[in-house]
Automatic annotation (TrEMBL):
InterPro entries, A to Z: WBP2-like
CDD domains reported in the protein's UniProt record: PH-GRAM_WBP2
Top-level taxonomy: Eukaryota, Viridiplantae, Chlorophyta, core chlorophytes, Chlorophyceae
SUPFAM superfamilies named in the record: PH domain-like
Record gene name: PLEST008547
Domain of life from the UniProt record: Eukaryota
Region (Disordered): 186-205
GO cellular component term of the entry, any: nucleus
Molecular function GO terms recorded: chromatin DNA binding; transcription coactivator activity
Protein name per its UniProtKB record: Uncharacterized protein
Amino acid sequence: MSANPALVQAVHGELCPAPFPNEVFVLRREGVQCELHGVQSRVKGWQARGALYLSNIRLVFVSAKPDESGLVAFDFPLVYIRNDKLNQPIFGCNNLSGQVWPAVERGGPAGELPPHDFKVYFKEGGIGTFYHLYYTLAERAKKAFDEAQGRSRASDANPVDYVADLVSRAFMDPNDPSTVYLAQQQPVGESQRLPSAPRYAANYGQDEVYEPMGLRP
């Protein structure tokens, strides 16, 4: 699903996306603000502060507190992101803008639903570590997806061994406060891993409120 993916408590008590099979988290970045348009909320948009997770499969934004509609987290599959651009204004903070196809029924690049416009503002510190890792993983995933005409998954393009090597050789920007995860030092244990690969489907209730995120034990 796109909205409210399953979350678990990480080792330090923070909420973290529950990993899919063959998913490895690369980093966590706090102090970000996410603006997302076209989602179902009280004002048909969402703006929240929280943390951003990057894995070999997706970006996940987790808000510090849920929206009154129940929206607390959003899943950005790397293969569904398009027109992404790093913006570095003279005045203001660095931000990543783009569009992401909704990963729900009738969504995706071949679906009927339009993509969501998004912008992620990095309110605290630089982005040298984050952007290099994000750009490399996203470009590989999207290229593999396009070449396979939609049959590929992001994890196919970014297998665990490749990600481990990428992270071990990545430039660590001292001004970037991201927490980087090595393959053997993940934020959650194997017991918290989801049993199956992503299955994207609508997660709206008939009352137009997001279904509970389902915090896993």
